[in-house]
Amino acid sequence: DAKTTQPPSMDCAEGRAANLPCNHSTISGNEYVYWYRQIHSQGPQYIIHGLKNNETNEMASLIITEDRKSSTLILPHATLRDTAVYYCIVAIQGAQKLVFGQGTRLTINP
Amino acid sequence: SQTIHQWPATLVQPVGSPLSLECTVEGTSNPNLYWYRQAAGRGLQLLFYSVGIGQISSEVPQNLSASRPQDRQFILSSKKLLLSDSGFYLCAWNQGGSGELFFGEGSRLTVL
User: Within an 8 Å CB–CB cutoff, is residue A35 touching chain B?
Assistant: First the structure.
């Protein structure tokens, strides 16, 4: 079973920041938080991951709370192409398998 | 650069017929390989993973089997398909020690 809880769906206006929450209250000290997204009829795409520090790359920012029990993926300027299902996953680095939950269906509205 | 390919992209099969989906990875060696399935409107379910040639771990009991005859080849099979086998099948790979999975284009199977 997935170790994370995400809202099933969210909406965001184009050009605004999309903030996707994830709860992982049972995360252990050596587990990372990974984010993937899946555009319709395609394979999932890796976005970002982190352990305890906030991370940023060209796609998104990841904010992890100090107690590491929750995190937020931020898409700073959402576009229509960001409409997808976003998955939050916790796993140790080097885990042999990643378990995907139901994710959050993010819809970007014009 | 590394690439992953799986085929066929789509197929329609009758109940009781066999199945073979193939996945190959190029540009890397000794990858971990995975088969996921996504039923319509559902999340991703891990079916099998492999950390080396001939080493297969099954996550859920089912009508399917997997094999890894070569380092960068992963095959998903069934002797007799069921209606419930319909779905979107995804092959993926990563290197041991990395949580970044790379997925193939997917194979959409419809069993009638």
Answer: no
Q: Which residues of A touch B108 (CB under 8 A)?
A: 41
The enclosing H or E element of A103 equals none
- Which positions ≥6 away from A62 have C-beta within 8 Å? A33, A35, A48, A49, A50, A54, A55, A56, A71, A72, A73, A74
Nearest to A96 among B49, B102, B105 (CB): B49
Task: Give tens-digit pLDDT for A5-64.
Answer: 999 999 999 999 999 999 999 998 889 999 999 998 899 999 999 999 899 999 999 999
What pLDDT score was predicted for residue A98?
A: 82
10 Å Cβ neighbour count for A91? 19
3-state secondary structure chain B: CCEEEEECCEEEECCCCCEEEEEEEECCCCCEEEEEEECCCCCEEEEEEEEECCEEEECCCCCCEEEEEECCEEEEEECCCCHHHCEEEEEEEECCCCCCCEECCCEEEEEC
d(CA B43, CA A4): 13
